[in-house]
Amino acid sequence: MLVLTCGTNGSYVFTPGHVSFQETPKVKVADTVGAGDSFTGSFVGSILNGKSVPEAHRTAVQVSAYVCTQNGAMPTYPEELLK
């Protein structure tokens, strides 16, 4: 598995025989600190909790976009982002 994040140009997850692409949501950016870490953490956490690669990818994109709308690297996450 290979994960490629491209900032405003979206992100890709490559697995044997499949490519998952997610566009980057358009958000009002307050701070990008922690965006990559939140993407990675939520992706891995989602996979470990049984989500499919496309579902985990979608969650990772949503969480990292939310982090970009907040100041600081560790905002409190709305519960609906983590489901």
Question: What features would you describe in this structure?
Answer:
With 83 residues, the protein is α+β, with helices and mostly antiparallel strands. The chain contains 2 helices and 3 strands, in the order βββαα. The protein has helices at residues 35-48, 53-68; strands at residues 2-5, 11-15, 18-22. The protein has a 3-stranded antiparallel β-sheet with strand order 1-2-3, with helices on one face. A hairpin with a 2-residue loop joins strand 2 and strand 3. Helix 1 packs antiparallel against helix 2. It is globular and about 40 Å long. The mean pLDDT is 92.
Characterize this entry briefly.
With 83 residues, the protein is of the alpha+beta class. It has helices at residues 35-48, 53-68, and strands at residues 2-5, 11-15, 18-22.
Question: Topology, pairings included?
Answer:
Blueprint: E1 2-5, E2 11-15, E3 18-22, H1 35-48, H2 53-68
Count of alpha and pi helical runs: 2
Distance between the termini: 23 Å
Radius of gyration: 12 Å
Spans of 5+ residues with little confidence (pLDDT < 50)? Answer: none
State the secondary-structure class.
alpha+beta
- Can you tell me the overall shape? globular
The main sheet orders its strands as 1-2-3
Give the total of beta strands.
3
Helix share, percent: 25-40%
Strand and helix order: EEEHH
Largest sheet: 3 strands, antiparallel
Instruction: Tell me the fraction of residues in β-strands, as a range.
Output: 15-25%
Mean pLDDT: 92
